[in-house]
Structures are given as C-alpha cells and as structure tokens.
C-alpha cells in the first residue's frame, strides 16, 4: 500500500510503499477513502506524543470501507461504510465498563499508539466496540472530518460543557475544533462569541453560527471584550486552540459559576500554563477537559447531521492528495488554512 511515513521527528515524511496490514482477530482492515490532516498529527510529528514509536505512519481522522474482517468480529462485514473515534477502548477496564472508552485505561489511537490512516489501508483493533456505521447520506470526506475535531467538540459542548439554549458560549480559536464547536453550540440554541486572530477564520465562524466575533490580534483585552459582548461573561467557554493565552482568556471570559472546557491540546511550552486560580475560586468556576468521544455516543450527533441541524460538510476545506498531505502536515503550525483539510485521493 502507499503510505506517508516518517522515521525521524521534525524531518520531512516521505511517500512510500509498505505491506498491506492484516486484521487482528478482534479487528478489521479499513480501505481509507478519506482522512483528515489535524494539528494533533503535527504534534505527533514534532515529537510531543510519547506513545509514538518510530518509524511511524500518522493519521487518525478516517472514514472508509471494511476490506478485511478478523475471525472474532461479529458486528461487521466487508464492504461496510465506517468511521472510528480517534481513541479506541479495550472493553475490559473499569472506564470501558462504565461507557467511558474515550479515557480507556488501555486505549489505542490510530496514528499515535499504532500506525494511522495516511495510507491506503489501516488496521483497527476491537472493531465490535469501536467502529461506527456511517449513514449512506454522509460522504467520506465529511465523515473523516468528524473523527477528531467534530466529535471532540460535540462532547466538549454537549456532554462536558452541558450547553443550554440561550446561554452565551465563547470559543477561543476558530480552526477545525473551534468551528465545529461554534456550529454545535449554535445548533443547541446558544449564542456564540468566536475569537481568533484571522479575519478569514472569523468570517467562517459567523457563517456557521457565531453571533459575535473578537479579533484577538486587534483587541487589547480579549476576555473583557467577551464579557462586554455577552453582558457579563460567557456561561461556557472553550479553548479550542491549546495555548497559554487562549486557555487563560477562556477562563477570564466566564461569568460567575461559568464552565471552561479545555479542548485544544496543551503541549510543549504550553503544557503547564499558569492559570488564574484566584478567579476560579472567587467565581466558583468549573474546569473540564475533553478527550474525544465514545463510539456509542455518535448516535445523537449523526441524528443532528441527518436532520440538517448540523452541517459538518461546511467545515471541509481543501481536498488534497496523499502526497500533498506531507506539506499540509508540516505546515499545521502556521494556521494558513481555513476549515478541515482532508485527503481524498490516494
């Protein structure tokens, strides 16, 4: 199979030919029809993820058709259209038994703990627990765009953030995660303030549901601007980027007893940010993390997509080739693209 492989962190990956994978007893092999290029892949390539062993094939947002099935799999067959969360559960640990596969004690992650989907084929383990059937109405590029950013945002806004109609929601960072969160919060009846340094990103944020925007590059005090727009502060605020400034601004944007959800990955120099804990205590704020979403929680999200309340296809940006994914991956830190970049040609 054709695949993108890197043998050294921070050095250009290469397009190469590798052996086709075979399914594990409890797994399947998926013919990849589309795979997203995500900033988490960039973090992996930079060496920020200790789970990655070299050489490595990146890619964790994928959709495709099942090409081979392990003998222990009972729920799936060849030809089924599927996607998969970027965190897979083992099915045996206490967290999995409680339905929390996204924080499984023995989780696997394609593109991180295992070779990923920047390839023609990818092997996925524990298929009966972790695969998600795709509606025929959902194209593969859109389905791939759900795999990390959209599902993470859905859980962050709906499950962790407990969004309610009429609330003010602030979203700091309008990349794929942020734009997904804006769309989901707006579809849930919230009023959304979008914050970014790019007017192009803010325009896209308005197109998917933001009622107000703040350009952080031109605003001396972002948190104060959000509090002014929302009449005292957001009820729910998300850091969708993962930087010290956006994390702190998100917390300071909240009104009393507000809820902050950390969605963006805090890595490298941002891994231990100084937080305004005095504000957290004095305002009785709640701080949550959000790490993907379980396969069994896809149903409500897919229902909102099928009835038109959510339109993730509006977030799909460039459609590129597998070879072009190399430059796209290495350039993720420059934030030059709008929407979700998806590989659709292998």
Automatic annotation (TrEMBL):
<dbReference type="Pfam" id="PF00107">
    <property type="entry name" value="ADH_zinc_N"/>
</dbReference>
<dbReference type="GO" id="GO:0008270">
    <property type="term" value="F:zinc ion binding"/>
</dbReference>
<dbReference type="GO" id="GO:0016616">
    <property type="term" value="F:oxidoreductase activity, acting on the CH-OH group of donors, NAD or NADP as acceptor"/>
</dbReference>
<feature type="domain" description="Enoyl reductase (ER)">
    <location>
        <begin position="8"/>
        <end position="343"/>
    </location>
</feature>
<keyword id="KW-0479">Metal-binding</keyword>
<keyword id="KW-0862">Zinc</keyword>
<dbReference type="InterPro" id="IPR013149">
    <property type="entry name" value="ADH-like_C"/>
</dbReference>
<dbReference type="InterPro" id="IPR002328">
    <property type="entry name" value="ADH_Zn_CS"/>
</dbReference>
<keyword id="KW-0560">Oxidoreductase</keyword>
<dbReference type="InterPro" id="IPR036291">
    <property type="entry name" value="NAD(P)-bd_dom_sf"/>
</dbReference>
<dbReference type="InterPro" id="IPR020843">
    <property type="entry name" value="ER"/>
</dbReference>
<protein>
    <submittedName>
        <fullName>Alcohol dehydrogenase</fullName>
    </submittedName>
</protein>
<dbReference type="Pfam" id="PF08240">
    <property type="entry name" value="ADH_N"/>
</dbReference>
<dbReference type="InterPro" id="IPR013154">
    <property type="entry name" value="ADH-like_N"/>
</dbReference>
<comment type="similarity">
    <text>Belongs to the zinc-containing alcohol dehydrogenase family.</text>
</comment>
<dbReference type="InterPro" id="IPR011032">
    <property type="entry name" value="GroES-like_sf"/>
</dbReference>
<dbReference type="InterPro" id="IPR050129">
    <property type="entry name" value="Zn_alcohol_dh"/>
</dbReference>
